[in-house]
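ok so for the tutorial part 2 we go from a plain amino acid sequence to predicted structure tokens. step 1 is just haveing the sequence, like this:
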Amino acid sequence: MEHTAQMANIINRARIKQRSLVITLLDLKNAFGEVHDNLIQSTLEYHHIPDNIKNVIKSLYTDFKTSVITSEFRTPFITVGRGVLQGNCLRFSAVEHLLEYFHSAHKS
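step 2 — the prediction. this is what the tokens look like for a chain of 108 residues:
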């Protein structure tokens, strides 16, 4: 919580002084990397998502590869075993639903 207060203070100071600000958030404990694809599928099952949609989502994470492209080079394809790529809101949503599921299971 302390880091959140510090970040809010930095944002406010930048706003008051009319300065540009770039904030980079790091997943130091790799929480998103710990969400395995089978948990995403379990979450979709729990929320009664139709099979055709589950299959499309599963295909996004089956044999998934990426590469790094700049103006000067392009890497060979890199297999993504687990983890989350920047901008992948689907996995964040799955994490959110998993937390809801575990919270409700813990209550009962």
